[in-house]
Specification:
Blueprint (H helix, E strand, L loop, with lengths): L1 H12 L6 H12 L4 E4 L6 H12 L3 E5 L7 H4 E6 L4 E6 L6 E5 L6 H4 L3 H6 L1 E4 L2 E4 L5 E6 L12 H4 L4 E3 L6 H10 L15 H12 L5 H16 L3 E3 L3 H17 L7 H12 L4 E2 L8 H11 L5
Parallel strand pairs: 1-8, 1-9, 2-5, 5-8
Antiparallel strand pairs: 3-4, 6-7, 10-11
Helix pairs in contact: 1-2, 2-11, 9-11, 11-12, 12-13
Length: 306
């Protein structure tokens, strides 16, 4: 099965040049059963990553372009009166899919953003007193522009916490950008990518990854990281139990993708920023602001061996 996962990573890499780490992170998030937030400048390949993943995994795919005038019904669907039978009929929105790309999610209002909360957490939506289950798997990849850009609304903490991981693609290397310029529009190659992993095989990967072991000493290291974030005066607030579970689950998947049946401290350290950074905020008097600075502090101040 791991060979197939490597093939998936290689296939997506054919259209997203030089970003194997980010592709592996996105696949880790999917296998761990979470949702992914990609924050970066426009034109960095965020949409390409989502579309390519859906293609090579054979998943149903829907894309929503978020705008300032969107309403929750544009995401969830709405009950519309059918005059032919004299009753309201629910018409499902684009959220009823396997892989949902919420493109530029922070360009819409908090009210519309919140329409995804129940879907992301409970895999269901409630409309007019009725509850409708979503398909399994259900994976949200949301993209957001930097909050410094015009026309953006910052995501509230409750929304950020629904995302298992937050990653950035960044500018490509010189070699990767040369390949991009010489190879033409990579997005045109996406329909040609072959399906490398079925939904049933994805479920099998989830079961196998969940069986990866984490030693008592490894759990203690994770707990020291979490406790430090809650007790240090440099943090406005610490990591919640949901966050600590998120790190453990993703570390198991990362170890699984690496061909191991056990988690090592390097797995925790590799995933610390994508899993924790968007869940942390610095205290007002902390000299360095931003999640990356807080992650550096965790790594430097918390010993692997207690």
């Amino acid at each position: 099965m791991r060979n197939k996962l490597d093939q998936v990573i290689g296939s997506v890499g054919q259209v997203l040049y030089g970003k194997e780490l980010q592709i592996r992170q996105a696949l880790t998030c999917l296998i761990a059963g979470g949702h992914l937030l990609i924050e970066d400048l426009p034109g960095m390949g965020k949409t390409t990553l989502a579309h390519a993943l859906a293609q090579v995994l054979g998943m149903d795919y829907q894309r929503i372009q978020f705008t300032s005038d969107m309403l929750p019904a544009d995401i969830l669907g709405a009950a519309i009166f059918d005059s032919s039978n004299g009753r309201f009929v629910f018409h499902k929105g684009p959220v009823f899919t396997q892989l949902l790309l919420a493109d530029e999610i922070n360009r819409t209002s908090p009210k519309t953003q919140s329409a995804l909360l129940e879907a992301m957490e409970e895999r269901q939506v409630s409309i007019e007193g009725e509850t409708y289950p979503l398909v399994d798997p259900f994976f949200v990849i949301a993209t957001q522009n930097p909050v410094s850009q015009y026309g953006t609304f910052p995501l509230p903490e409750s929304q950020l916490d629904r995302f298992l991981m937050r990653i950035r693609l960044g500018y490509p290397s010189k070699e990767a950008e040369r390949d991009l310029l010489c190879g033409g529009d990579a997005r045109q190659k996406i329909p040609q990518l072959s399906v490398g992993l079925s939904v049933a095989e994805l479920q099998q990967c989830r079961q196998e990854a969940a069986g990866v072991s984490a030693s008592s000493s490894l759990i203690d290291y994770l707990l020291r990281l979490v406790r430090y974030s809650r007790e240090s005066a440099d943090f406005d607030y610490g990591i919640s139990p949901r966050g600590s579970l998120a790190l453990l689950n993703t570390a198991k998947v990362w170890a699984y993708l690496s061909g191991r049946e056990y988690v090592v401290p390097e797995d925790i350290q590799t995933l610390l920023e994508p899993v924790f950074a968007h869940r942390l905020r610095a205290a007002e008097d902390y000299t360095e602001q931003g999640g990356t600075a807080l992650i550096r502090k965790l790594l430097s101040d918390v010993d692997v061996v207690g």
